[in-house]
Amino acid sequence: MSHAADTYRHRGQRRALVEELRRKGIRDERVLAAIGEVPRHRFFERGFESHAYQDKAFPIGEGQTISQPYTVAFQTELLRLSPGQRVLEVGTGSGYQCAVLLAVGAEVFSIEYNAVLFERTRRRLHELQLGGAHLFCGDGSVGLPAHAPYDGILVTAAAPALPRPLLRQLRVGGRLVVPVGNEQVQRMVRVTRESAEGFAQEELGDFRFVPLLGAAGWAS
Ligand code: SAM
Questions:
Q1: Which domains does the chain have, with CATH numbers?
Q2: The pTM is what?
Q3: Cα separation, 175 vs 101, whole angstroms
């Protein structure tokens, strides 16, 4: 069986994963449909695909991980994106979250700090014909001001504090979703830009991410 195949078995495993995420509290049907659509096994290195439909994070090399499907669904749901809205993802990693954002109809800008992962993932998304995402290699802790403002900004690595440069790149009405805390545990924070200078902050549960590096992250 080729690595590239998306078989009846894979589709069945995705349906079971969607039901598991529903039981765990994910409600947004567009997010659940995206999880049901994106072939997560294609984001794993050859030989490790059998782990793809467990609700677990998994190593992707370079000391990084593909996030747990529940976390991907939870963060995507918190963004409350409508089709066509612009989203910046900080931490492209394997490209899986990026593919889920594309599947909910967003225009995706995604930036990855690690050049090896960036190159590997750029090729993978191209092979999967997900070339619609705008991919960048660099320090996303300071955002991507050239393409701002965004309706949503999603950070997929743990920040030591709210990354201030990202707040300024939100459109009024836009949402920033970012895990903030120490290296052991982080609170999921959603900040909504209510006006030019007004921001509302909510804290939504504990998670564990790899560290956000760069100027507004942890020291590299
Ligand atoms: N969203 C990814 C996926 O679907 O596979 C999971 C990402 S992994 C949990 C976090 C990623 O953030 C890693 O690939 C890491 O290299 C990247 N990262 C860390 N600091 C960064 C920064 N300042 N800018 C951009 N990416 C960063």
A1: 8-207 (3.40.50.150)
A2: 0.96
A3: 14
Backbone angles phi, psi at 193, to 5 degrees: -85, 110
Structure-block tokens of residue 79: 């963004």
| CA 60 / ligand 1 centre spacing (Å) | 11
Residue nearest atom 19 in ligand 1 by C-alpha distance: 212
Residue with tokens 């078995």: 9
pLDDT digits (tens, 9 = 90+) for 185-216: 999 999 999 999 999 999 999 999 999 999 99
30 C-alpha to ligand 1 centroid (Å): 24
CA 91 remoteness from chain centre: 7
Over the stretch 136-194, which tens digit does the pLDDT of each residue have? 999 999 999 999 999 999 999 999 999 999 999 999 999 999 999 998 999 999 999 99
- Residues annotated as part of the active site: 67
Q: Cβ neighbours of residue 98 under 8 Å, at least 6 residues apart?
A: 89, 92, 108, 110, 121, 125, 130, 133, 135
